[in-house]
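ARCHIVE CARD
CATEGORY: sequence design from structure
SOURCE FIELD: tokenized fold
FIELD CONTENT:
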């Protein structure tokens, strides 16, 4: 029903608009619009970009107003939903809403007296700010590991005493999917839990920039700033995207100074440390360094394993250890990919009632793991490696602990991990019945040696090529 009415409301509007604008403009500016919903006398339309929205507001307010009021009555209003990022396979589209577009305004002077509230709504004339936190991103669900220990404890300290510790601002940085957003939201949730009266606001730079532009356009910069000054904890995610945006930076600088001076807490995240940030005013960068800067690293094997178990457990799903191990090693891009793999497994297990086993895990992974793992036998790897290093094949498979054997053995394990689909424990089986932790240790020491010793690295690379050409032929 709802869809039909919305569509017909918009169709009626289009009829009126068509009479007012020429064909070309009608096709360019009105046909791409998708009517989303009608709510009483408010019609929400989706437009394909920020630019599109601005163009409509600049050029077609009288036309839109006329159409809306003719169809929805004198009180009729228009709201926009702007597609800022149309998304892709792994990321859903991002939308920003513009309630009260000019075209939707009944009375400009009355509107000007309204309080500015990008994320607020009013209850009994006091403004309530929606903190925009994801309730699942808490400290309880955030697994601690060497990779994030400092950042996590700094976050904890801030959550206990927001604005009071010297960690102000708290600046967390790290690559994609290392848990920055999760952690800063956990701080926000924790503060909301411990201090319900504190005003918390999580915002990513994208929203911030859009609000800023919107306020600029509507002469509401002062309101924009006042709104932010009500906040006790401001979390600005992915601040690196403010690079090169002079005006937005300037405004953020003012807000930052005001909040900081009045003992309000600021938390930011970025993909690199402040010293490497390009396109920022120096005075802003120097402020970023005032408090504490802490990094989050790629999670190590153990942490990944714990994250996997934790996530599956919270969904009430048992995941066999060998599957968890397989995933922790194979998904080496980032945790967001891991999340995708786990969700897919959960989907198979719950909706399709499949058992989570290695086979299913490999199937799901096929779309994600980059290096296609050609099947090659352990025997072949062991033989090639022992020939190359000129050591006895039996020694590699056996228990000898001499260095000249141990290193080739570790290298052979390393290639088994890379070129076969065996689990860690199965690899261990093939090397004198060693357990999975010995295999992990072997993989780590090969990687460490490759980092530390260029000669060793080229040896391994060369061996890798040998194995690969043999695999391909
Ligand atoms: P970032 O913001 O650094 O790109 P996210 O915070 O979005 O990364 O993390 C990506 C995914 O990995 C999220 O689903 C998050 O819950 C999960 N994740 C990251 N780190 C951890 C952790 N230490 N414990 C549990 N889940 C984590
Ligand atoms: Mg993030």
């Amino acid at each position: 029903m709802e869809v039909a009415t919305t569509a017909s409301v918009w169709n009626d509007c289009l009829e009126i608009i068509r009479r007012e604008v020429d064909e070309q403009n009608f096709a360019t500016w009105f046909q791409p619009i998708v009517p989303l919903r009608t709510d009483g006398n408010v019609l929400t339309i989706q437009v394909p970009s920020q630019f599109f929205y601005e163009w409509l507001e600049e050029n077609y307010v009288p036309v839109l107003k006329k159409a809306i009021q003719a169809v929805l009555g004198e009180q009729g209003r228009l709201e926009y939903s702007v597609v800022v990022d149309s998304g892709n396979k792994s990321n859903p589209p991002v939308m920003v809403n513009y309630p009260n577009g000019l075209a939707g305004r009944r009375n400009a002077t009355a509107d000007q007296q309204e309080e500015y509230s990008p994320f607020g709504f009013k209850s009994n004339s006091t403004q309530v700010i929606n903190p925009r936190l994801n309730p699942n991103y808490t400290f309880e669900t955030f697994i601690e590991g060497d990779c994030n220990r400092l950042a996590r404890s700094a976050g904890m300290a801030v959550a206990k005493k927001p604005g009071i510790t010297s960690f102000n601002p708290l600046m967390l940085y790290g690559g994609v999917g290392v848990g920055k957003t999760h952690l800063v939201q956990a701080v926000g949730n924790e503060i909301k839990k411990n201090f319900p009266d504190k005003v918390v606001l999580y915002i990513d730079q994208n929203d911030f920039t859009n609000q800023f532009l919107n306020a600029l356009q509507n002469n509401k910069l002062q309101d924009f700033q006042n709104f932010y000054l009500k906040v006790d904890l401001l979390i600005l995610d992915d601040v690196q995207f403010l690079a090169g945006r002079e005006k937005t930076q300037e405004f953020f600088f003012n807000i930052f100074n005001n909040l900081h001076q009045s003992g309000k807490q600021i938390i930011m995240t970025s993909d690199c440390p402040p010293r490497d940030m390009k396109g920022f005013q120096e005075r802003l960068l120097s402020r970023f360094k005032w408090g504490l800067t802490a990094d989050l690293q790629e999670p190590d094997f153990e942490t990944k394993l714990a994250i996997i178990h934790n996530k599956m457990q919270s969904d009430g799903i048992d995941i066999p250890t060998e599957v968890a191990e397989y995933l922790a090693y194979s998904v080496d891009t980032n945790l967001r990919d891991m999340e995708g793999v786990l969700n897919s497994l959960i989907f198979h297990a719950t909706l399709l009632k499949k058992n989570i086993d290695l086979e299913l895990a490999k199937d799901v992974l096929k779309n994600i793991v980059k290096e296609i793992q050609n099947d090659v036998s352990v025997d072949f790897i062991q033989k090639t490696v022992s020939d190359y290093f000129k050591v006895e094949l039996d020694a590699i498979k056996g228990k000898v602990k001499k260095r000249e054997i141990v290193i080739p053995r570790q290298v052979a394990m390393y290639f088994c991990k890379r070129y076969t689909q065996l689990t860690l424990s199965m690899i261990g089986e093939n090397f004198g019945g060693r357990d999975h932790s010995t295999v992990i240790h072997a993989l780590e020491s090969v990687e460490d040696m490759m980092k530390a010793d260029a000669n060793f690295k080229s040896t391994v690379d060369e061996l890798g090529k040998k194995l690969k050409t043999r695999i391909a032929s």
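CARD ANNOTATION: Residues 180-181, 237 surround magnesium ion (ligand 2) (CB under 6 Å). Confidence is low (pLDDT under 50) at residues 106-114, 121-126, 370-374.
SHELF: design records, drawer C
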